[in-house]
Design brief:
Structural class: alpha/beta
Number of helices: 7
Helix content: 40-55%
CATH topology: Rossmann fold
Number of domains: 1
Strand content: 5-15%
């Protein structure tokens, strides 16, 4: 069983992943949560060292810089497509060889999240995007968690506004571009947990 949870920073991905794993284990099933970008078949190189927080001359912590300042979405060229295809093939092999088919594997992020950082502009780039969407393994349940941009800003004040707006636009289009994706709003007052539980009960059935 493959379940993927996509969404921008501050949308509630990690909470949803924990709820899914807890639901599965509560029904006597084996379930594991994975960070997609940390899978050996996706992370072709070991992660770099975490940057240390700077300090001022008085020894106090310097204010953290705004993350993704000046962000723009990337072009989907041939090199990017080749990397996508290599990772898709590697993921297919890894899933078949390493993972137990009877277990629930819940991914925090997926290929869909990577695509959200690209903006196909030309006819060729749109063709590339369509090919990649067809090649990506379809999960048993694909979820995208969403929230309003002002909610994301409040949850993640350290992120640049241009990043939140551009990536947020990509995620808002995701359910329309990929009809198999279930959209769950994590806005306060939304019945997010109830909707998620209903979908998971459908999988059990």
């Amino acid at each position: 069983m493959l379940i993927t949870v996509s969404g921008m920073v501050g949308s509630g991905k990690t909470t949803a992943v924990h709820e899914i794993v807890g639901f599965a284990k509560g029904h006597g099933l084996e379930a594991r949560a994975h960070r997609f970008q940390s899978l050996p078949c996706i992370a072709f190189r070991p992660p770099g060292r975490r940057r240390q927080t700077g300090t001022t001359s008085r020894g106090t912590a310097a204010p953290a810089p705004t993350r993704w300042s000046g962000y723009t979405r990337k072009r989907l060229g041939a090199t990017a497509v080749a990397v996508f295809v290599a990772r898709i093939l590697a993921f297919r092999a890894y899933r078949r060889i390493v993972w137990k088919p009877t277990a629930w594997h819940v991914l925090n992020r997926y290929f869909y999240d990577s695509l959200c950082h690209y903006q196909p502009r030309s006819r060729l780039e749109r063709f590339y995007a369509a090919v990649l969407k067809a090649l990506i393994p379809r999960p048993d349940l694909a979820i995208v968690v969403t929230a309003r941009l002002d909610t994301i800003r409040a949850r993640r004040p350290g992120y640049a506004n241009e990043y939140i707006e551009l990536v947020g636009e990509s995620y808002r289009r995701l359910p329309a571009d990929l009809p198999n994706v279930l959209e769950l709003s994590t806005e306060p007052g939304e019945p997010t947990a109830e909707r998620l539980t209903a979908q998971l009960r459908t999988l059990l059935g």
